[in-house]
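Running low. Invent one:
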Amino acid sequence: MNLRGKQKRFLRARANRMRPLFSIGKDGLSETWLTQVNDALNNRELMKVNILQNSAVEPADVREFVEANSQIQVVQTIGRTVLLFKIADQAKHRHISEEVKQI
C-alpha cells in the first residue's frame, strides 16, 4: 500500500505519544534486527525506532535498508527517530491499517 499525504498525517498523529520500541546501536542494521522489527510490526502495525548516538547509521540509511528488504514503510524521520508502518499479516491485528484505508 502506498501511503498518501493524509494517511501519513494520520499515522504521525497516532504515533505522537508513542515511545520508541527498538533501538539501533553500534552493531548497526542486520537481517536479525529487521526480522525482529517485522515480527513486532505484525502485532502493532505502527512503531518508532530510535537510532542511538553511538551508531554509525543515519536515518536515510535506515529508510533505504528497511524499504529495500521488507514490506515496511518509513512514514517519517525526526532527528534520530524513525516511524515505521506495516500492514499486519493476521486480520485480527489490522486495527490501524483499516482506519488508514478509509482515509
About this structure: The chain has a mean pLDDT of 94.
